[in-house]
Amino acid sequence: MSATIYLEGGAKGSKEVSIRCREGFRKLLEKCEYKGRLPSLVPCGSRHAALDDFTTALASEAAGNFIALWIDSEDPLTDVEATWAHLKRRGDSDRPSGCTDDQVLFMTTCMETLIVADRAALEEHYKSKLQTSALPPLVDLENRSRDDVQGRLAHATRDCSNKYAKGKRSFEILAKLTPATLAEHLPSFVRTRRILDRRL
Question: What secondary structure letter does DSSP report for 102?
Fold first, then answer.
């Protein structure tokens, strides 16, 4: 059995950003102790491109192989397990025939939520110029809007020479995150680990 995860991230037409995206997620998954059984990671660029690529792959994949989508939830989740209901409610996609909720993994509400959850990794990456007090509180982090999380992260790193930006810089930080820290603060990450433990 093989496993493939279609990622929101990278950029169509930008080989370097896609490589950085794949590397960031690969390093995070290796820290989750999946080394030696890592899934194929496919950076798709935009959210809708990831949905399209995932749906296309479903139609041609051999039975028994695990095909998944790892994307931003965009909005807070009312039920972390009801992923297709969330996507339908947002008008993103209906559930493809035969597809399960376990095939959608969410970064809730965005990849930056993962990043701000790990203060030690941020401090190691940005050093003394990071304004930690500007970051969102860790309590109920997944219920904060993506605009709030992204805006606070940008503000907290505004004086840093390598201030936060989507793309290459964001994936550099992703690679430094500690799974145990993410699991402490993010129910969606706990769910992702539980699914991958079973599927990989």
Answer: G
- Predicted confidence (pLDDT) per residue in 27-75, tens digit: 999 999 999 999 999 999 999 999 999 999 998 876 789 999 999 999 9
d(CA 151, CA 157): 10
Do 87 and 70 touch, CB atoms closer than 8 A?
no
Instruction: For the chain, list the domains and their CATH numbers.
Output: 3-110+168-199 (3.40.50), 113-156 (no CATH)
Both tokens of 67, joined, read 């095909």
Inform me whether the pLDDT recorded for 14 exceeds 70: yes
**Alpha-carbon span 13 to 135, nearest angstrom:** 32
What is the spatial distance between Cα 187 and Cα 192, in angstroms, rounded to a whole number?
9
Structure token pair of residue 161: 């020479």
End-to-end alpha-carbon separation of the chain, Å? 9
What CA–CA distance (Å, rounded) separates 187 from 139?
Answer: 12
pTM, 2 dp: 0.96
Q: Which of 67, 60, 88 is nearest to 7 (CA)?
A: 67
Residue 134, both tokens: 């500007």
Distance of CA 104 to the CA centre of its chain: 11
d(CA 190, CA 25): 16
Range 100-116 average pLDDT: 98
